Amino acid sequence: MTKENVQGASEEEPQGQSKKGLKKQQKEAEKAAKKAEKQAKLADQQEADEDDFAKDRYGVCPMVQSQQKLDRALVRVQDLTPEKAEQQIWVRARIHTSRAKGKQCFLVLRHQQFTVQALIAVGDHASKQMVKFAANLTKESIIDVEAVVKKVDQKIESCSQQDVELHVERIFVISQSEPRLPLQLEDAVRPEGDGDEEGRATVNQDTRLDNRVIDLRTTTSQAIFRLQSGVCQLFRDTLINKGFVEIQTPKIISAASEGGANVFTVSYFKTSAYLAQSPQLYKQMCICADFDKVFCVGPVFRAEDSNTHRHLTEFVGLDIEMAFNYHYHEVVDYITDTMVQIFKGLHDRFQTEIQTVNKQYPSEPFKFLEPTLRLEYKEGLAMLKAAGVEMGDEDDLSTPNEKLLGRLVKEKYDTDFYVLDKYPLAVRPFYTMPDPNNPKYSNSYDMFMRGEEILSGAQRVHDAQLLTERAMHHGIDLEKIKAYIDSFRYGAPPHAGGGIGLERVTMLYLGLHNIRQTSMFPRDPKRLTP
Amino acid sequence: MTKENVQGASEEEPQGQSKKGLKKQQKEAEKAAKKAEKQAKLADQQEADEDDFAKDRYGVCPMVQSQQKLDRALVRVQDLTPEKAEQQIWVRARIHTSRAKGKQCFLVLRHQQFTVQALIAVGDHASKQMVKFAANLTKESIIDVEAVVKKVDQKIESCSQQDVELHVERIFVISQSEPRLPLQLEDAVRPEGDGDEEGRATVNQDTRLDNRVIDLRTTTSQAIFRLQSGVCQLFRDTLINKGFVEIQTPKIISAASEGGANVFTVSYFKTSAYLAQSPQLYKQMCICADFDKVFCVGPVFRAEDSNTHRHLTEFVGLDIEMAFNYHYHEVVDYITDTMVQIFKGLHDRFQTEIQTVNKQYPSEPFKFLEPTLRLEYKEGLAMLKAAGVEMGDEDDLSTPNEKLLGRLVKEKYDTDFYVLDKYPLAVRPFYTMPDPNNPKYSNSYDMFMRGEEILSGAQRVHDAQLLTERAMHHGIDLEKIKAYIDSFRYGAPPHAGGGIGLERVTMLYLGLHNIRQTSMFPRDPKRLTP
Fold first, then answer.
1. Which is nearest to A298 in space by CA: B360, B249, B295, B427?
2. Which of A70, A98, A452, B111 is close enough to B93 for a disulfide, judged by CB 3.0 to 4.6 Å?
3. Marked catalytic residue, from A96, A110, A190, A310
4. Can you tell me the distance from the alpha carbon of B256 to that of B266, in angstroms, rounded to the nearest whole number?
5. Would you call A474 helix, strand, or coil by DSSP?
6. Residue A117 backbone dihedrals phi, psi, to 5 degrees
7. Is A402 a catalytic residue?
8. Which residues in A237-384 belong to E strands, given as ranges?
9. Within the 248-277 window of chain B, which residues sit less than 8 Å (CB to CB) from chain A?
10. Do B298 and B316 touch, CB atoms closer than 8 A?
11. For chain B, domain boundaries
12. Architecture of the domain delimited by B58-175
């Protein structure tokens, strides 16, 4: 490629990517290349007339194929501050926007969530041709620029780096973007109301997800997934500090771990197997194997045909299991403290990310109490009944009632995080320990953020005989969970634990309303790509 | 259950667990319970004759069902040191061994990899009946004891806590083990040679894996998996310090990520899908989405019918992908430094675990150089040819040649870790960047520990056109990887990365010889359980 090729490219209005096959695309690309070549030749002739003194100062680089080890430091956009004023530096960034104005071209350069203004003007360092070249570069192309950092008198409100701009002296393209983007980044970060009012576009969810690589470049997406990385880190660091061991549990299993429903089947050589619906049985087996306090972070799979705002067929489970001495509340305290450490860490370390997301999706700051509020299921039910809800003592909470209870709890206790303890035994899995004082209840709990469940947990039955009885009561084929039940025959400590949905924690902490926003490449009954 | 039940139990020689159904087991258990009840009644009568002054000091606790919040601190076995001498404490532990001798009973109590001797003797605190009760407890049962910590004159060589023993005053069973263990822990930690010579048993791998919960209790297993948890932690901490973001990639995918072979098929509602053979395409898409430096830790699936010492059908991938400026060696340096940080961290923080494993599986300490040795594939081939190996310049390394090269490198450079760079293009995946100087080679590399591959990586093709050409050259259906190829159309930074096999790192660092030892619940073509 030569530098002239790009000059033929001009920005067009965004439109849907052609759905025709790649071969056709290729042919078109070849045609376009030939056309560009012709144009380039013409342009060459024209420009040969006026001598371009800056011709070595711009152009399209050959594809970076590691031809050389260039000893050139690149400064990150986020590090462009007034302390660097008057320094000559190199920067690599994308072209976020571009605006030509007479003999000048203003670019906004972007790297991740950071932006800076850059100016190329005809003068000592740039020729007319060079400014034209810059003005014709396609948005989202990646470029290297050499520039002098200049302090500005008036803050540049539209950029993250408001106190400086770059005066560009050289500009080279590292990777060109096609001119037609499947979505515009500025549309993708526009708050939902704003678009309607002012007749400006927003981007619907399917377009975002179909073009996830572009959608993930927005400041909002960058912030969401950096914060999510932080949730994982805080979860693990807190537990490792508390003496937990990280385990890895198999995802391909020979029998459905939580009963037969909602499980994906896998062809396994000459037989079939299942995808684990949770690491439940395996983390408990690790407790029986004396690891005492274990956690794992990994995918869990649910073949549930639920098309809701908070269900995915594959999500990331943050799982905890722990032996305790005398009462499962020892474990509940460990888990709630872990959640509190996560909330504090997010608040302290991810304020920029939280504020970035809030610009597009406003929400109240997340509130929690110390110690964590723990209500009994009965108490929760009483609050709901007092608010006019009719439901039986042993019924499970429906999603609307869950949310209503969250609002009632928020009003009364001013917290977005609480534990609901002692669920009816009937609505919990077979391995749940019954309440010693009332056989209709159980030593089990859910935890909620902003009125939605993020964790389900319980003391587990650690006695093989009672476990067998409970499994039979639930109609589970004992032969299929033999290895699991046998684990409890050779001395098993009392233990409890829980499983947290990572995407839900991120969604609810940030006050978002759809779990697909907090899963990079979400999977639901209707979506398997990208 | 009453305390008398246990008295009927006696230790028997280990033998294979009956393979008959659970129902039969249950019937037998019921019979045994009736028999025990009868015996208990008899025992009751006998004991009624002699008054038992200690009868409240021992027994079987009711199943811990969180009946009460007991305000009792339990001291961990590993914390039983001479500083605690003369203190009255409570300990929870398993019965590791038990030896009755006249009016005394010596127990070795175990918690995880730590052991302490405990003595119960007829006297002020224990009756004849209480000593008999203790002597009859089954191995691996979990007990609470109240005891006084006593310094000992002679070190107790057989225990980890060598300077103290416990004088037991109360003993209660928390969870009873069945008397017949499917394997003996002392057999399971015996070095392989030792068993043969002295006519003592060792435990074969299938017995271990069939009874993994017991096998994981051994000091060796505890050490292996604590160290493996450390590998994950060191990997992530090092990368987070280097500015990486953790990502979560989908495991259920619509098209085989690395070509069609060796992929597991999943039924996905009314269609089918595949299990990801690596997070390759997704971590690259994150680079195109400006995350710049990403890592992920998660399961990868290979439907390969390989029954070798180092292949699993499901293993844990530690994956890295990173944008670089001008040369992929920037990324190679990041990865090798990450490996070096892991080696150093293991050496500094897991010395006890390393030595524990070495007792059963002796090996030389793991050696590495700083900076890491990097050889070109051609150089490796020249070394092999000089050693008499015949192979073509563009052939891949066979496993025996890989190992031989490892030995040659160790002899010449004294390192167990090195990089082999610039593999022939023909033996690498379609997304590998060709060498700019020689089209037969590529910008790709493997990394080796003790002569076995632990990482495979490369600079990736970041240009949609070249990627299309390379995919077609490999006969890959372009329509199936459209979303992936399209990711590179809107500006893509040059990038490189690699995938590390967690179980292999643990195995090779510790000098073990079978990957099933470093996977808690290994999956291979013949094993799906437990």
1. B249
2. B111
3. A310
4. 12
5. coil
6. -85, 140
7. no
8. 245-246, 252-253, 265-268, 271-275, 293-301, 314-323, 373-376
9. 248-254, 264-269, 271, 273, 275
10. yes
11. 58-175, 185-217, 221-517
12. Beta Barrel (2.40)
CA B387 to CA B179: how far, in whole Å?
Answer: 57
Q: Is A460 a catalytic residue?
A: no
Q: List, in sequence order, the alpha helices (H) in A155-310.
A: 185-188, 192-198, 205-210, 212-215, 219-241, 280-288
How many helices and strands (H and E) does chain B possess?
16, 18
Instruction: Tabulate helix, strand, coil % of chain B (nearest 5).
Output: 35, 25, 40
Helix (H) or strand (E) holding B339: helix B329-349
Instruction: Give the number of C-alpha atoms closer than 13 A to the C-alpha of residue A303, restricted to the C-beta side.
Output: 22
* Strand intervals (E) in B293-403: 293-301, 314-323, 373-376
Distance in angstroms (rounded) separating the CA atoms of residues A10 and B232? 48
> Which of helix, strand or coil describes residue A343?
helix
**Binary contact (A491, B246; C-beta < 8 A):** no
Which value does ipTM take for this structure? Answer: 0.90
E strand segments, B361-520: 373-376, 417-421, 444-449, 452-459, 495-501
DSSP letters along B26-89, please? HHHHHHHHHHHHHHHHHHHHHHHHS--TTTTSEEEPPP--S-------EE-GGG--GGGTT-EE
Are the beta carbons of B391 and B384 closer than 8 angstroms? yes
Task: Convert the pLDDT of each residue in B399-448 to its tens digit.
Answer: 999 999 999 999 999 999 999 999 999 999 999 999 999 999 999 999 99
Tokens of A271: 């037989």
Q: What is the greatest pairwise CA distance in chain A?
A: 96
Q: Which of A12, A26, A60, A65 to mutate to test the interface with B (most CBs of B within 10 A)?
A: A65
Token pair recorded at residue B66: 């969180």
The secondary element (H helix, E strand) that includes residue B95 is strand B88-101
Report the C-alpha gap between B6 and B171 in whole angstroms. 13
Cβ contact A282–B520 (<8 Å): yes
| A200: number of Cβ within 10 Å | 12
Structure tokens at B238: 């090092």
3-class secondary structure per residue, B135-171: HCCCCCCEEEEEEEEEECCCCCCCCCCCCEEEEEEEE
Residue A472 neighbours by CB under 8 Å, 6+ apart: A478
A221-517: same fold as A58-175?
no
* Alpha-carbon span A202 to A190, nearest angstrom: 6
Work out the burial of residue A142: count CB atoms within 10 Å of its CB; fewer than 13 is exposed, 13-18 middle, 19 or more buried.
Answer: buried
pLDDT, block means (10 residues), chain A with 530 residues: 36 40 62 69 60 94 96 96 98 97 95 96 95 96 98 96 98 97 94 69 93 97 98 98 97 78 92 95 97 98 93 97 98 98 98 96 97 97 97 94 98 98 96 96 98 97 97 91 93 98 98 97 95
| C-alpha–C-alpha distance, residues A136 and A98, integer Å | 8
For B349, the 3-state DSSP assignment is helix
Q: What CATH number is given for B221-517 in this structure?
A: 3.30.930.10
Q: Which residues are registered as beta bridge partners of A501?
A: A317
For residue A503, the chain B residue with the least C-alpha distance is B248
